[in-house]
Every structure is written in structure tokens, then in C-alpha cells.
Specification:
The protein has 175 residues and is of the alpha+beta class. The chain is 33% helix and 35% strand. The protein contains six helices and eight strands; from the N terminus they run ββαααβββαβαββα. An eight-stranded mixed β-sheet has the order 1-2-3-4-5-6-8-7, sandwiched between helices. Helix 1 packs across helix 3 (45-55). It is globular, with a radius of gyration of 16 Å. The two termini are 23 Å apart.
């Protein structure tokens, strides 16, 4: 178990699947975490969530330190070990948005990944209409690296997908 000022980041256990399914079924969350159709996800989707958590290099359940309440998940996957490039993703339940928790968890996971996995860079993808997430990433030093225009059909309109990244030396200079 790892901790920050307000958060616990712990290993996934089988009993987390119900909370993860609730997170991914939240109507405010789901449009920001999938390229697929926004729809009700049934019990079979738990297998996808299980695989996602088990295959991540650093898959964390994020909980509120004060109460132990489930807040969401954070993931770092290293798909290109030779290039020391990791992919980052995070998702929290809406009741925890706009309180600095996403920034706190993201900052911790970035720092941990550079220090313990020897990464040279972390990359991520984010939908262009997710201003809250983009602001967090930019505040922590991620830079825009690309834009895939009109890549996702969402809420009766096209949205761009942005690619952002941060290099180890950029992180070390800023933090």
C-alpha cells in the first residue's frame, strides 16, 4: 500500500470489481474513458476490468485515506520496455472531482513510475473536451504532442483525441 497526503493507492483485489464496474458505468465518467459506445456495462465487463488491472505495470485502486472509500483507479502500463515509455491513465468517481485528488494521485504515480520503473517518458491520450483532465496534465508538466482530429463520436458530435507526454528530465526539473 502506498500513501499520499489524502490518498491510499493500493493493489487491486477481486472484490474491487464491483466498484470498478460502478466507476465505468457512471454516466459522467464513461464518455471520458472509452472510445466505444457509451452504454450500460454488465457483469461480463468485469473480466475486461480484471485484465486491465492485472496487466498494468502499476495498477492502483485509489481510496480516500481518511475513510478508505473507493475513489477510482490509476494505471501505468509499459508497452515499450526497450524505449522506457509508459502509458498513464486515471479515472475517479465524479464526487471526487475538483478537490485536487486527481492531481495528487497523478503526481504520485508519475513520480513513482520515473523512480521505480526507470521510465524515460510517460504518455497519455485524452479527449479534447476533457478540459479538467487536460488542465491537471498541463499543470504537472505534460506537453501536447499530437491531435487526432474528429477521432471519436461523442454526444452527437466529433471530438479530437490529444496525445500528451512528459519526459523524465522535464519531470525532474519541475519537481
Amino acid at each position: 500500500m502506498l500513501t499520499t497526503e489524502h490518498l491510499i493507492l493500493r493493489s487491486y483485489v477481486e472484490s474491487d470489481l464491483d466498484d470498478l464496474l460502478r466507476l465505468w458505468n457512471d454516466p459522467l465518467v464513461q464518455p471520458f474513458v472509452t472510445n466505444d459506445n457509451v452504454t450500460l456495462l454488465g457483469p461480463k465487463f468485469k473480466e475486461t476490468l480484471r485484465n486491465q488491472m492485472e496487466q498494468a505495470t502499476f495498477g492502483a485502486i485509489i481510496a480516500l485515506k481518511e475513510t478508505g472509500e473507493f475513489m477510482g483507479q490509476g494505471l501505468v502500463s509499459i508497452l515499450e520496455p526497450k524505449n522506457r515509455d509508459g502509458t498513464f491513465g486515471i479515472c475517479l468517481l465524479p464526487k471526487f472531482w475538483s478537490n485536487g485528488y486527481g492531481t495528487e494521485a497523478t503526481k504520485f504515480m508519475i513520480d513513482y513510475s520515473f523512480k521505480w520503473f526507470g521510465l524515460n517518458r510517460l504518455s497519455l491520450g485524452v479527449f479534447a473536451n476533457n478540459a479538467r483532465a487536460i488542465a491537471v496534465y498541463e499543470k504537472l508538466g505534460f506537453v501536447m504532442e499530437g491531435r487526432k482530429r474528429q477521432a471519436v463520436w461523442m454526444d452527437n458530435r466529433w471530438e479530437d483525441v490529444l496525445t500528451m507526454g512528459i519526459l523524465r528530465d522535464e519531470w525532474e526539473r519541475q519537481h
